[in-house]
Amino acid sequence: MPQDNHNYPVEQCPLTLWRYPKQDVRSSLQAWDSADILLAETALPILTQSNASTLVVNDQFGAISLHLQSVTSVPISFYSDSKIAHLAYQQNLQLNSDNSAKTDLTINPLGSSLNDLNKITAEQIYLIKIPKNLDFLEAILDKIHQVAADDAQVIAAAKATEINNKVIKLFNRYFKQVDVSLAVKKSRTISASGKQPSPYSSYSYWKTWQLDNGLTIYNAPNVFSRSSLDMGAAFFLPHLPAKPQDFQPTQTHVFDLACGNGVLSAYIANSFQQNNCAGELVIHLFDESYMAIESAVKTLEANDLSKVKIKTYWNDCLADVEQKADWIVCNPPFHQQKTITDHIAMQMFNQSKVCLAEGGKLSIVGNAHLGYGKRLNEIFAASQLVAQDKRFVVLTAND
Ligand code: SAM
Fold first, then answer.
1. Ligand 1 pocket mutation, candidates 84, 321, 331, 392, criterion most atoms within 8 A of CB
2. Full domain range(s) for residue 363
3. Are 182 and 209 in contact (CB under 8 A)?
4. Chain centroid to CA 21: how far?
5. Ligand 1 neighbours by CB, cut-off 6 Å
6. Considering only CA atoms, which residue is closest to atom 10 of ligand 1?
7. Fewest Cβ atoms nearer than 10 Å: which of 31, 97, 166, 267?
8. How far away, in angstroms, is 5 Cα from ligand 1 center?
9. Within 13 Å of residue 58, how many CA atoms lie on the same side as its CB?
10. How many domains is the chain built from?
11. Which residues, at least 6 apart from 68, have a Cβ–Cβ distance to it below 8 Å?
12. What is the pLDDT of residue 88?
């Protein structure tokens, strides 16, 4: 039964909004939540009255930005670390621009569209969809505190259950005046203004930790497993390409698909150098998080893995990639934001099949209960179980 889950429920802006990639018409998932609507509706009268330049931070599928762009001509800009959020915004902008004759909707142009937190500049109003990751929230507040004028205003929103004492404390660390609203449809806003003169915090953009072999792993605030090695990755490391016979005599292309902080790449590059393997190693780093790409590059550069060439792709899985790979290594995600899903892993496996060079191989690690072995068998000519314990499996697949 199709669901009415893509018609944005705000009368003044009859937008059609889909997640990215588009959810099934029978799916109950939506491209917005009540906090997005509350944030846009709370900000609107302030924006209209002041005509103030506004940056929307962490809009997940474009709902907040497009809501505002369709009811005000105030200059709106967009920052998100996530490629999926940028693609969702563009998809929904296109869809609603195409529909505009039918819906009588004018979508005013967007100002800048940013993926690098360090490029955020002074705006008068910042609208933040509060991320679950508090290190990322602190990075955002710290950056705004650095660049904004004293009279800048911050309005943030999330589900009421996510606005806890730790979140409020972070806002208080950076701003003098912090007000939490009453709950509206199970969401709340936090309004903050008046910069604290010198916030006291142990926060630092980079967090590092070390592998047993001495490699230092660099982690930006929004990267997966920022504080320690992921257990799946730990189980995977001994099964990554490492020996001279794992590499081609001339050039080997390894894709680190969903690279995060680059821990898998660093391990492979280090083995390649330590074991004096022949030829050249080119590591291709893929992630939809800009901070992941930034972290993986920093990890490889800081560990003096200089014999290895690096290429980066801030990308949705392997979409539109023409390069062929000898090895694809992947510790796939099994949720998109707060939703548990296997669609990203499936997309990664299907696209890996297309990207493998002749004789190439995909190696993955996954939670044993996810049944990835069966899925790989459906896609590839052959798959092998390489290692297994109570929690994880390492599998390879090839054609
Ligand atoms: N390789 C790292 C490790 O083993 O610790 C990180 C693995 S983590 C389980 C999964 C990674 O997938 C995250 O860094 C996340 O940003 C990335 N990711 C999620 N969806 C993606 C997509 N559609 N395209 C590319 N990367 C994605």
1. 331
2. 207-398
3. no
4. 14
5. 84, 224-225, 230, 233, 258-260, 263-264, 286-289, 292, 316-317, 331, 333, 344
6. 333
7. 166
8. 27
9. 23
10. 2
11. 40, 43, 44, 47, 54, 56, 74, 76
12. 98
Q: What spacing in Å lies between the alpha carbon of 316 and ligand 1's midpoint?
A: 10
CATH number, domain of 134, equals: 3.40.50.150
Testing ligand 1's pocket by substitution, the residue of 224, 317, 330, 347 carrying the most ligand atoms inside 8 A of its CB is 224
The confidence score (pLDDT) of residue 338 equals 63
pLDDT per residue as tens digits for the range 255-314: 999 999 999 999 999 999 999 998 999 999 999 999 999 999 999 999 988 779 999 999
Residues 186 and 232 in one domain: no
Residue 259 tokens read as 């690279």
Shared-domain flag, residues 184 and 218: no
Residue 342: pLDDT band (50, 70, 90) is confident
pLDDT of residue 270: 97
Mean pLDDT score of the chain: 95
Same domain membership, residue 120 and residue 227:
no
In a domain, 200, yes or no: no
DSSP code string of 198-261 = S------S-EEEE-TTS-EEEE-TTSTTSSS--HHHHHHGGGSS-SGGGS-SSEEEEEEET-TT
What is residue 1's predicted lDDT score, i.e. its pLDDT? 64
In a domain, 10, yes or no: no
